[in-house]
Fold these 2 entries.
Entry 1:
Amino acid sequence: MAENEDGTFTLFFMITAEQISKNSIPAHVAIIMDGNGRWAKAKGLDRSEGHRFGAEAVKKVVRAAGKIGVKYLTLYAFSSENWNRPQAEVDAIMDLLVYMIQRETPELMENSVRLLAIGEIDRLTPDAQKSLQETIDTTSGNTGLTLVLALSYSSKREILSAVRKISSDVSIGKFSVDDIDESTIETALFTSGMPDPDLLIRTSGEQRISNFLLWQIAYSEFYFTKTYWPDFDEQSFFEAIYQYQNRERRFGLTGDQLTTNSNFTE
Ligand code: FPP
Protein backbone atom coordinates (compact mmCIF):
# COMPACT_ATOMS: atom_id res chain seq x y z
CA MET A 1 0.00 0.00 0.00
CA ALA A 2 1.36 3.48 -0.84
CA GLU A 3 0.22 6.86 0.43
CA ASN A 4 -0.91 9.28 -2.27
CA GLU A 5 -0.33 13.06 -2.21
CA ASP A 6 -3.91 13.59 -1.00
CA GLY A 7 -3.47 11.26 1.97
CA THR A 8 -5.44 8.39 0.41
CA PHE A 9 -3.83 5.00 -0.17
CA THR A 10 -3.31 2.96 -3.30
CA LEU A 11 -3.46 -0.78 -2.86
CA PHE A 12 -0.85 -2.86 -4.65
CA PHE A 13 -2.19 -6.26 -3.70
CA MET A 14 -4.93 -8.18 -5.45
CA ILE A 15 -8.37 -8.18 -3.89
CA THR A 16 -10.17 -11.45 -4.57
CA ALA A 17 -13.89 -12.18 -4.23
CA GLU A 18 -13.02 -14.18 -1.08
CA GLN A 19 -11.50 -11.13 0.64
CA ILE A 20 -14.71 -9.19 0.27
CA SER A 21 -16.93 -9.39 3.34
CA LYS A 22 -20.27 -10.99 2.52
CA ASN A 23 -21.89 -8.98 5.35
CA SER A 24 -21.53 -5.53 3.85
CA ILE A 25 -21.93 -5.92 0.11
CA PRO A 26 -23.35 -2.62 -1.25
CA ALA A 27 -26.91 -3.29 -2.40
CA HIS A 28 -26.54 -0.69 -5.15
CA VAL A 29 -23.40 0.38 -6.99
CA ALA A 30 -23.62 3.22 -9.52
CA ILE A 31 -20.80 3.91 -11.98
CA ILE A 32 -19.90 6.93 -14.08
CA MET A 33 -17.96 5.14 -16.82
CA ASP A 34 -15.50 7.77 -18.01
CA GLY A 35 -12.30 7.85 -20.05
CA ASN A 36 -13.17 5.87 -23.17
CA GLY A 37 -12.04 8.71 -25.43
CA ARG A 38 -8.76 9.36 -23.59
CA TRP A 39 -8.03 5.63 -23.50
CA ALA A 40 -8.45 5.45 -27.29
CA LYS A 41 -6.43 8.63 -27.89
CA ALA A 42 -3.54 7.33 -25.78
CA LYS A 43 -3.45 4.27 -28.03
CA GLY A 44 -3.77 6.25 -31.29
CA LEU A 45 -7.25 4.79 -31.89
CA ASP A 46 -10.56 6.34 -32.87
CA ARG A 47 -12.84 7.33 -29.94
CA SER A 48 -15.37 4.70 -31.08
CA GLU A 49 -12.75 2.01 -30.29
CA GLY A 50 -12.68 3.37 -26.75
CA HIS A 51 -16.43 2.83 -26.51
CA ARG A 52 -16.10 -0.65 -28.02
CA PHE A 53 -13.55 -1.68 -25.40
CA GLY A 54 -15.63 0.16 -22.80
CA ALA A 55 -18.53 -2.12 -23.63
CA GLU A 56 -16.31 -5.15 -22.90
CA ALA A 57 -15.50 -3.60 -19.51
CA VAL A 58 -19.25 -3.38 -18.87
CA LYS A 59 -19.45 -7.11 -19.36
CA LYS A 60 -16.63 -7.78 -16.88
CA VAL A 61 -18.14 -5.53 -14.23
CA VAL A 62 -21.65 -6.98 -14.59
CA ARG A 63 -20.16 -10.44 -14.00
CA ALA A 64 -18.11 -9.25 -11.02
CA ALA A 65 -21.09 -7.50 -9.42
CA GLY A 66 -23.25 -10.61 -9.84
CA LYS A 67 -20.49 -12.79 -8.41
CA ILE A 68 -20.38 -10.99 -5.05
CA GLY A 69 -24.15 -10.46 -4.74
CA VAL A 70 -24.63 -6.77 -5.58
CA LYS A 71 -28.38 -6.33 -6.15
CA TYR A 72 -28.40 -3.19 -8.36
CA LEU A 73 -25.72 -1.92 -10.72
CA THR A 74 -26.48 1.38 -12.45
CA LEU A 75 -24.24 2.41 -15.34
CA TYR A 76 -24.18 5.96 -16.74
CA ALA A 77 -23.94 4.95 -20.39
CA PHE A 78 -25.22 8.08 -22.14
CA SER A 79 -26.12 11.45 -20.66
CA SER A 80 -28.62 13.97 -22.06
CA GLU A 81 -25.60 16.19 -22.72
CA ASN A 82 -23.92 13.43 -24.78
CA TRP A 83 -26.43 14.12 -27.61
CA ASN A 84 -24.29 17.21 -28.36
CA ARG A 85 -21.26 15.09 -29.33
CA PRO A 86 -20.34 14.71 -33.04
CA GLN A 87 -23.14 12.81 -34.81
CA ALA A 88 -20.75 10.02 -35.88
CA GLU A 89 -19.85 9.33 -32.23
CA VAL A 90 -23.49 9.40 -31.11
CA ASP A 91 -24.36 6.95 -33.92
CA ALA A 92 -21.45 4.68 -32.96
CA ILE A 93 -22.59 4.57 -29.31
CA MET A 94 -26.22 3.84 -30.30
CA ASP A 95 -25.11 1.06 -32.70
CA LEU A 96 -22.86 -0.39 -30.00
CA LEU A 97 -25.68 -0.33 -27.50
CA VAL A 98 -27.98 -2.27 -29.84
CA TYR A 99 -25.20 -4.73 -30.69
CA MET A 100 -24.27 -5.34 -27.04
CA ILE A 101 -27.85 -5.71 -25.83
CA GLN A 102 -28.63 -8.25 -28.53
CA ARG A 103 -25.33 -10.12 -28.12
CA GLU A 104 -25.48 -10.26 -24.33
CA THR A 105 -29.13 -11.14 -23.73
CA PRO A 106 -28.40 -14.91 -23.59
CA GLU A 107 -25.70 -14.32 -20.94
CA LEU A 108 -28.03 -12.06 -18.96
CA MET A 109 -30.55 -14.91 -18.98
CA GLU A 110 -27.92 -17.50 -17.95
CA ASN A 111 -26.93 -15.36 -14.96
CA SER A 112 -30.47 -14.30 -14.10
CA VAL A 113 -29.66 -10.60 -14.66
CA ARG A 114 -32.67 -8.29 -15.03
CA LEU A 115 -32.23 -5.28 -17.32
CA LEU A 116 -33.85 -1.90 -16.65
CA ALA A 117 -33.28 1.55 -18.15
CA ILE A 118 -33.64 5.04 -16.73
CA GLY A 119 -33.62 8.30 -18.66
CA GLU A 120 -35.55 9.86 -21.54
CA ILE A 121 -35.67 6.55 -23.40
CA ASP A 122 -38.02 7.92 -26.05
CA ARG A 123 -35.13 10.08 -27.34
CA LEU A 124 -33.08 6.97 -28.26
CA THR A 125 -33.05 5.71 -31.85
CA PRO A 126 -36.01 3.42 -32.69
CA ASP A 127 -33.58 0.48 -33.01
CA ALA A 128 -32.10 1.13 -29.58
CA GLN A 129 -35.55 1.51 -27.99
CA LYS A 130 -36.72 -1.73 -29.57
CA SER A 131 -33.68 -3.82 -28.49
CA LEU A 132 -33.78 -2.33 -25.04
CA GLN A 133 -37.49 -3.03 -24.55
CA GLU A 134 -37.15 -6.59 -25.89
CA THR A 135 -34.37 -7.40 -23.43
CA ILE A 136 -36.14 -5.63 -20.56
CA ASP A 137 -39.19 -7.82 -21.26
CA THR A 138 -37.15 -11.02 -21.74
CA THR A 139 -35.22 -10.55 -18.50
CA SER A 140 -38.10 -9.16 -16.40
CA GLY A 141 -38.53 -12.38 -14.39
CA ASN A 142 -34.83 -12.70 -13.49
CA THR A 143 -34.03 -12.50 -9.79
CA GLY A 144 -30.25 -11.96 -9.67
CA LEU A 145 -28.50 -8.65 -10.32
CA THR A 146 -30.61 -5.78 -11.69
CA LEU A 147 -28.56 -3.95 -14.31
CA VAL A 148 -29.83 -0.40 -14.81
CA LEU A 149 -28.63 1.50 -17.87
CA ALA A 150 -28.86 5.28 -17.57
CA LEU A 151 -29.49 6.37 -21.15
CA SER A 152 -30.24 9.90 -22.34
CA TYR A 153 -30.20 10.55 -18.61
CA SER A 154 -30.08 13.87 -16.78
CA SER A 155 -30.73 13.99 -13.06
CA LYS A 156 -32.02 17.57 -13.21
CA ARG A 157 -34.54 16.56 -15.88
CA GLU A 158 -35.51 13.51 -13.82
CA ILE A 159 -36.24 15.77 -10.85
CA LEU A 160 -38.08 18.24 -13.10
CA SER A 161 -40.23 15.44 -14.48
CA ALA A 162 -40.98 14.27 -10.90
CA VAL A 163 -42.01 17.82 -9.90
CA ARG A 164 -44.34 18.04 -12.92
CA LYS A 165 -45.91 14.66 -12.13
CA ILE A 166 -46.47 15.53 -8.47
CA SER A 167 -47.88 18.97 -9.37
CA SER A 168 -50.27 17.36 -11.83
CA ASP A 169 -51.40 14.83 -9.18
CA VAL A 170 -52.02 17.70 -6.75
CA SER A 171 -53.94 19.68 -9.39
CA ILE A 172 -56.34 16.77 -10.00
CA GLY A 173 -56.82 16.32 -6.24
CA LYS A 174 -54.99 12.96 -5.90
CA PHE A 175 -53.29 14.34 -2.78
CA SER A 176 -52.62 17.73 -1.22
CA VAL A 177 -49.39 19.75 -1.00
CA ASP A 178 -49.12 18.88 2.69
CA ASP A 179 -49.08 15.16 1.82
CA ILE A 180 -45.87 15.53 -0.21
CA ASP A 181 -42.92 13.95 1.56
CA GLU A 182 -39.59 12.39 0.54
CA SER A 183 -41.25 9.15 -0.48
CA THR A 184 -43.62 11.05 -2.84
CA ILE A 185 -40.57 12.40 -4.65
CA GLU A 186 -38.78 9.04 -4.64
CA THR A 187 -41.81 7.36 -6.17
CA ALA A 188 -41.93 9.95 -8.97
CA LEU A 189 -38.26 9.49 -9.95
CA PHE A 190 -37.12 7.09 -12.70
CA THR A 191 -35.44 5.05 -9.93
CA SER A 192 -38.71 4.42 -8.07
CA GLY A 193 -38.49 1.15 -6.15
CA MET A 194 -34.69 0.93 -6.26
CA PRO A 195 -32.50 1.38 -3.20
CA ASP A 196 -30.28 4.48 -3.27
CA PRO A 197 -26.68 3.79 -4.38
CA ASP A 198 -24.42 2.83 -1.48
CA LEU A 199 -21.34 3.35 -3.61
CA LEU A 200 -20.72 5.67 -6.55
CA ILE A 201 -17.64 4.96 -8.67
CA ARG A 202 -16.19 7.34 -11.27
CA THR A 203 -13.31 6.28 -13.48
CA SER A 204 -10.69 8.31 -15.39
CA GLY A 205 -9.53 10.67 -12.64
CA GLU A 206 -12.39 13.17 -12.95
CA GLN A 207 -14.00 14.02 -9.62
CA ARG A 208 -17.47 15.37 -10.37
CA ILE A 209 -21.03 14.08 -10.52
CA SER A 210 -22.05 15.29 -14.00
CA ASN A 211 -25.81 15.43 -13.45
CA PHE A 212 -26.05 11.81 -12.25
CA LEU A 213 -28.54 10.62 -9.59
CA LEU A 214 -28.35 13.90 -7.63
CA TRP A 215 -31.23 13.05 -5.30
CA GLN A 216 -30.29 9.38 -4.89
CA ILE A 217 -26.61 9.85 -3.90
CA ALA A 218 -27.36 11.90 -0.76
CA TYR A 219 -25.55 9.33 1.42
CA SER A 220 -23.52 7.37 -1.14
CA GLU A 221 -19.83 6.74 -0.64
CA PHE A 222 -17.74 8.10 -3.52
CA TYR A 223 -14.82 6.23 -5.05
CA PHE A 224 -12.69 7.90 -7.70
CA THR A 225 -10.03 6.05 -9.66
CA LYS A 226 -7.64 7.23 -12.35
CA THR A 227 -8.20 4.03 -14.35
CA TYR A 228 -9.84 4.71 -17.71
CA TRP A 229 -13.12 2.84 -18.10
CA PRO A 230 -11.92 0.35 -20.80
CA ASP A 231 -9.21 -0.83 -18.35
CA PHE A 232 -11.63 -1.18 -15.42
CA ASP A 233 -12.06 -4.90 -14.70
CA GLU A 234 -13.09 -7.37 -12.01
CA GLN A 235 -10.00 -6.54 -9.95
CA SER A 236 -10.67 -2.78 -10.16
CA PHE A 237 -14.28 -3.38 -9.12
CA PHE A 238 -13.30 -5.55 -6.15
CA GLU A 239 -10.78 -2.92 -5.05
CA ALA A 240 -13.56 -0.30 -5.01
CA ILE A 241 -15.81 -2.63 -2.99
CA TYR A 242 -12.98 -3.39 -0.57
CA GLN A 243 -12.37 0.32 0.02
CA TYR A 244 -16.10 0.90 0.47
CA GLN A 245 -16.19 -1.83 3.10
CA ASN A 246 -13.46 -0.07 5.04
CA ARG A 247 -15.36 3.22 5.29
CA GLU A 248 -17.52 4.21 8.24
CA ARG A 249 -20.95 5.33 7.03
CA ARG A 250 -22.36 7.61 9.69
CA PHE A 251 -25.50 9.02 8.03
CA GLY A 252 -25.09 12.24 10.03
CA LEU A 253 -24.51 10.48 13.36
CA THR A 254 -21.34 10.39 15.46
CA GLY A 255 -18.97 7.42 15.42
CA ASP A 256 -19.86 6.73 19.08
CA GLN A 257 -23.57 6.59 18.31
CA LEU A 258 -22.88 3.99 15.67
CA THR A 259 -20.98 1.73 18.06
CA THR A 260 -23.49 2.07 20.92
CA ASN A 261 -26.61 1.69 18.78
CA SER A 262 -26.12 -0.79 16.00
CA ASN A 263 -29.65 -0.06 14.74
CA PHE A 264 -28.22 3.03 13.07
CA THR A 265 -25.74 1.08 10.97
CA GLU A 266 -26.60 -0.35 7.55
C1 FPP B 1 -17.47 8.18 -21.32
O1 FPP B 1 -16.21 8.26 -21.90
C2 FPP B 1 -18.28 7.14 -21.98
C3 FPP B 1 -19.44 7.35 -22.67
C4 FPP B 1 -20.04 8.68 -22.85
C5 FPP B 1 -20.15 6.25 -23.34
C6 FPP B 1 -20.20 4.97 -22.55
C7 FPP B 1 -20.54 3.86 -23.44
C8 FPP B 1 -20.05 2.61 -23.32
C9 FPP B 1 -19.19 2.16 -22.23
C10 FPP B 1 -20.36 1.58 -24.32
C11 FPP B 1 -21.77 1.09 -24.43
C12 FPP B 1 -22.45 0.83 -23.17
C13 FPP B 1 -23.12 -0.27 -22.84
C14 FPP B 1 -23.92 -0.25 -21.59
C15 FPP B 1 -23.09 -1.52 -23.60
P1 FPP B 1 -15.82 9.57 -22.71
O2 FPP B 1 -16.14 9.31 -24.15
O3 FPP B 1 -16.50 10.76 -22.14
O4 FPP B 1 -14.28 9.62 -22.48
P2 FPP B 1 -13.34 10.92 -22.44
O5 FPP B 1 -13.80 11.75 -21.27
O6 FPP B 1 -11.97 10.34 -22.22
O7 FPP B 1 -13.49 11.62 -23.76
Entry 2:
Amino acid sequence: MESSTPVIVAIDGPSGTGKSSTSKAVAAQLGLSYLDTGAQYRAITWWMVTNGIDTADPSAIAAAAGKPEIVSGTDPEYPAITVDGFDVAGPIREQDVTSRVSAVSAVPEVRARITELQRTIAASAVTGIVVEGRDIGTTVLPDADLKIFLTASPEARAARRSGELKGTDLHATREALVKRDAADSSRKTSPLAKADDAVEVDTTDLSLHQVIECVVTLVEEKRAGR
Ligand code: DC
Protein backbone atom coordinates (compact mmCIF):
# COMPACT_ATOMS: atom_id res chain seq x y z
CA MET A 1 0.00 0.00 0.00
CA GLU A 2 1.39 3.43 -0.93
CA SER A 3 1.49 6.26 1.61
CA SER A 4 -0.88 8.33 -0.59
CA THR A 5 -3.57 5.66 -0.23
CA PRO A 6 -6.39 6.88 2.07
CA VAL A 7 -6.00 5.58 5.62
CA ILE A 8 -9.11 4.10 7.23
CA VAL A 9 -9.24 4.18 11.04
CA ALA A 10 -12.05 2.44 12.96
CA ILE A 11 -12.60 3.52 16.58
CA ASP A 12 -15.15 1.47 18.52
CA GLY A 13 -16.21 1.21 22.14
CA PRO A 14 -19.03 2.03 24.54
CA SER A 15 -20.09 5.57 25.44
CA GLY A 16 -18.06 7.65 27.86
CA THR A 17 -14.69 6.25 26.77
CA GLY A 18 -13.69 9.49 25.03
CA LYS A 19 -14.43 8.03 21.60
CA SER A 20 -15.93 11.15 19.99
CA SER A 21 -13.42 13.63 21.41
CA THR A 22 -10.53 11.35 20.48
CA SER A 23 -11.81 10.58 16.98
CA LYS A 24 -12.42 14.24 16.12
CA ALA A 25 -9.05 15.37 17.45
CA VAL A 26 -7.12 12.58 15.68
CA ALA A 27 -8.87 13.34 12.38
CA ALA A 28 -8.24 17.10 12.73
CA GLN A 29 -4.58 16.60 13.68
CA LEU A 30 -3.90 14.24 10.75
CA GLY A 31 -6.02 16.02 8.11
CA LEU A 32 -8.51 13.15 7.81
CA SER A 33 -12.29 13.12 7.45
CA TYR A 34 -14.43 12.10 10.43
CA LEU A 35 -17.70 10.19 10.71
CA ASP A 36 -19.80 9.88 13.88
CA THR A 37 -21.93 6.78 13.22
CA GLY A 38 -23.75 7.10 16.56
CA ALA A 39 -25.11 10.44 15.29
CA GLN A 40 -26.57 8.61 12.27
CA TYR A 41 -28.39 6.10 14.50
CA ARG A 42 -29.56 8.99 16.66
CA ALA A 43 -30.77 10.84 13.54
CA ILE A 44 -32.89 7.93 12.30
CA THR A 45 -34.25 7.54 15.85
CA TRP A 46 -35.12 11.25 15.96
CA TRP A 47 -37.01 10.85 12.65
CA MET A 48 -38.97 7.87 14.01
CA VAL A 49 -39.95 9.78 17.17
CA THR A 50 -40.84 12.94 15.21
CA ASN A 51 -43.00 10.96 12.77
CA GLY A 52 -44.90 9.07 15.45
CA ILE A 53 -43.38 5.65 14.75
CA ASP A 54 -43.66 3.32 17.77
CA THR A 55 -40.01 2.69 18.66
CA ALA A 56 -41.03 -0.37 20.70
CA ASP A 57 -42.32 -2.03 17.49
CA PRO A 58 -39.44 -3.44 15.39
CA SER A 59 -41.69 -4.13 12.38
CA ALA A 60 -42.91 -0.50 12.31
CA ILE A 61 -39.28 0.68 12.50
CA ALA A 62 -38.24 -1.75 9.75
CA ALA A 63 -41.05 -0.56 7.45
CA ALA A 64 -39.99 3.09 7.87
CA ALA A 65 -36.20 2.57 7.82
CA GLY A 66 -35.80 3.58 4.18
CA LYS A 67 -37.73 6.85 4.44
CA PRO A 68 -35.52 9.50 6.10
CA GLU A 69 -32.70 11.05 4.11
CA ILE A 70 -29.69 11.31 6.40
CA VAL A 71 -26.70 13.43 5.37
CA SER A 72 -23.53 13.46 7.50
CA GLY A 73 -20.80 16.08 7.27
CA THR A 74 -17.25 14.74 7.58
CA ASP A 75 -15.32 17.80 8.76
CA PRO A 76 -13.97 17.02 12.27
CA GLU A 77 -14.08 20.73 13.16
CA TYR A 78 -17.80 21.05 12.27
CA PRO A 79 -19.54 17.65 12.56
CA ALA A 80 -22.91 18.26 10.90
CA ILE A 81 -25.94 16.04 10.41
CA THR A 82 -29.25 16.67 8.67
CA VAL A 83 -32.42 14.61 8.25
CA ASP A 84 -34.58 15.53 5.26
CA GLY A 85 -32.68 18.81 5.17
CA PHE A 86 -33.20 19.71 8.87
CA ASP A 87 -30.17 20.35 11.07
CA VAL A 88 -30.63 17.81 13.89
CA ALA A 89 -27.22 18.12 15.60
CA GLY A 90 -28.91 19.46 18.76
CA PRO A 91 -32.15 17.40 18.95
CA ILE A 92 -30.38 14.05 18.50
CA ARG A 93 -28.63 14.53 21.88
CA GLU A 94 -31.90 14.90 23.79
CA GLN A 95 -33.01 12.32 26.32
CA ASP A 96 -36.01 10.97 24.38
CA VAL A 97 -33.68 10.06 21.50
CA THR A 98 -30.93 8.67 23.78
CA SER A 99 -33.39 6.39 25.57
CA ARG A 100 -34.75 4.95 22.30
CA VAL A 101 -31.64 4.73 20.11
CA SER A 102 -30.59 1.22 21.25
CA ALA A 103 -34.00 -0.22 20.29
CA VAL A 104 -34.03 1.48 16.89
CA SER A 105 -30.41 0.62 16.06
CA ALA A 106 -31.02 -3.06 16.86
CA VAL A 107 -33.42 -3.41 13.90
CA PRO A 108 -31.59 -5.17 10.99
CA GLU A 109 -33.22 -2.97 8.29
CA VAL A 110 -31.95 0.14 10.09
CA ARG A 111 -28.44 -1.30 10.35
CA ALA A 112 -28.38 -2.33 6.67
CA ARG A 113 -29.42 1.17 5.59
CA ILE A 114 -26.96 3.03 7.84
CA THR A 115 -24.09 0.60 7.16
CA GLU A 116 -24.42 1.20 3.41
CA LEU A 117 -24.32 4.96 4.00
CA GLN A 118 -21.21 4.58 6.16
CA ARG A 119 -19.36 2.50 3.55
CA THR A 120 -20.17 5.03 0.81
CA ILE A 121 -18.86 7.91 2.94
CA ALA A 122 -15.67 6.02 3.91
CA ALA A 123 -14.98 5.05 0.30
CA SER A 124 -15.15 8.68 -0.84
CA ALA A 125 -12.69 10.08 1.76
CA VAL A 126 -9.71 11.42 -0.18
CA THR A 127 -6.96 11.44 2.48
CA GLY A 128 -8.67 8.92 4.74
CA ILE A 129 -11.21 8.89 7.54
CA VAL A 130 -11.67 8.21 11.23
CA VAL A 131 -14.98 6.37 11.72
CA GLU A 132 -16.26 5.99 15.29
CA GLY A 133 -18.98 3.63 16.45
CA ARG A 134 -19.74 0.22 17.89
CA ASP A 135 -19.37 -2.20 14.95
CA ILE A 136 -16.99 -0.39 12.59
CA GLY A 137 -14.01 -2.75 12.96
CA THR A 138 -16.15 -5.89 13.05
CA THR A 139 -18.83 -5.22 10.42
CA VAL A 140 -18.82 -1.88 8.61
CA LEU A 141 -15.14 -1.66 7.65
CA PRO A 142 -13.54 -5.04 8.45
CA ASP A 143 -10.56 -4.14 6.21
CA ALA A 144 -9.78 -0.88 8.06
CA ASP A 145 -6.04 -0.12 8.24
CA LEU A 146 -6.19 0.42 11.98
CA LYS A 147 -8.80 -0.67 14.52
CA ILE A 148 -8.94 0.79 18.02
CA PHE A 149 -11.25 -0.38 20.80
CA LEU A 150 -11.58 2.12 23.65
CA THR A 151 -12.69 0.98 27.10
CA ALA A 152 -12.96 2.57 30.57
CA SER A 153 -14.48 1.57 33.90
CA PRO A 154 -18.24 2.25 34.26
CA GLU A 155 -17.42 4.78 37.00
CA ALA A 156 -15.05 6.76 34.80
CA ARG A 157 -17.51 6.68 31.90
CA ALA A 158 -20.42 7.85 34.04
CA ALA A 159 -18.30 10.65 35.53
CA ARG A 160 -17.36 11.88 32.02
CA ARG A 161 -20.96 11.76 30.79
CA SER A 162 -22.23 13.58 33.90
CA GLY A 163 -19.65 16.28 33.21
CA GLU A 164 -21.00 16.65 29.65
CA LEU A 165 -24.66 16.66 30.72
CA LYS A 166 -24.51 19.26 33.46
CA GLY A 167 -26.76 18.81 36.46
CA THR A 168 -27.36 15.08 35.96
CA ASP A 169 -27.17 12.56 38.77
CA LEU A 170 -24.01 10.38 38.64
CA HIS A 171 -25.74 7.22 39.82
CA ALA A 172 -28.59 7.58 37.31
CA THR A 173 -26.09 8.30 34.51
CA ARG A 174 -24.11 5.17 35.39
CA GLU A 175 -27.27 3.03 35.42
CA ALA A 176 -28.41 4.40 32.05
CA LEU A 177 -24.97 3.84 30.48
CA VAL A 178 -24.72 0.26 31.73
CA LYS A 179 -28.23 -0.46 30.44
CA ARG A 180 -27.52 1.01 26.99
CA ASP A 181 -24.18 -0.89 26.72
CA ALA A 182 -25.91 -4.15 27.65
CA ALA A 183 -28.54 -3.58 24.94
CA ASP A 184 -25.91 -2.58 22.34
CA SER A 185 -23.66 -5.56 23.21
CA SER A 186 -26.38 -8.20 23.26
CA ARG A 187 -28.33 -7.40 20.09
CA LYS A 188 -28.24 -10.04 17.35
CA THR A 189 -27.14 -7.86 14.41
CA SER A 190 -23.58 -6.49 14.64
CA PRO A 191 -23.37 -5.86 18.39
CA LEU A 192 -20.85 -3.63 20.15
CA ALA A 193 -17.73 -5.81 20.03
CA LYS A 194 -13.95 -5.64 19.81
CA ALA A 195 -12.55 -6.96 16.52
CA ASP A 196 -9.89 -9.67 16.97
CA ASP A 197 -7.29 -7.44 15.32
CA ALA A 198 -8.21 -4.25 17.22
CA VAL A 199 -5.82 -2.51 19.61
CA GLU A 200 -7.54 -2.13 22.99
CA VAL A 201 -6.85 1.11 24.89
CA ASP A 202 -8.15 1.39 28.47
CA THR A 203 -8.72 5.12 29.00
CA THR A 204 -9.74 4.92 32.69
CA ASP A 205 -6.54 6.53 33.99
CA LEU A 206 -5.55 8.45 30.87
CA SER A 207 -6.21 12.10 30.07
CA LEU A 208 -7.93 12.90 26.77
CA HIS A 209 -4.61 14.34 25.56
CA GLN A 210 -2.84 11.04 26.31
CA VAL A 211 -5.47 9.00 24.44
CA ILE A 212 -5.25 11.29 21.39
CA GLU A 213 -1.44 11.05 21.37
CA CYS A 214 -1.63 7.26 21.64
CA VAL A 215 -4.00 6.94 18.67
CA VAL A 216 -2.12 9.49 16.54
CA THR A 217 1.09 7.50 17.12
CA LEU A 218 -0.63 4.26 16.12
CA VAL A 219 -1.94 5.83 12.88
CA GLU A 220 1.48 7.28 12.06
CA GLU A 221 3.16 3.92 12.67
CA LYS A 222 0.65 2.27 10.34
CA ARG A 223 1.28 4.81 7.63
CA ALA A 224 5.06 4.52 8.00
CA GLY A 225 4.87 0.72 7.79
CA ARG A 226 3.08 0.70 4.46
O1 DC B 1 -22.08 6.92 20.24
P1 DC B 1 -23.51 7.29 20.63
O2 DC B 1 -23.76 7.21 22.10
O3 DC B 1 -23.93 8.60 20.05
O4 DC B 1 -24.42 6.15 19.93
C1 DC B 1 -25.80 6.13 20.07
C2 DC B 1 -26.33 4.72 19.89
O5 DC B 1 -26.22 4.32 18.53
C3 DC B 1 -25.67 3.62 20.71
O6 DC B 1 -26.34 3.41 21.93
C4 DC B 1 -25.79 2.39 19.83
C5 DC B 1 -25.96 2.93 18.44
N1 DC B 1 -24.80 2.72 17.58
C6 DC B 1 -24.72 1.51 16.94
O7 DC B 1 -25.56 0.65 17.15
N2 DC B 1 -23.70 1.29 16.06
C7 DC B 1 -22.77 2.23 15.82
N3 DC B 1 -21.80 1.99 14.94
C8 DC B 1 -22.83 3.46 16.50
C9 DC B 1 -23.86 3.68 17.39
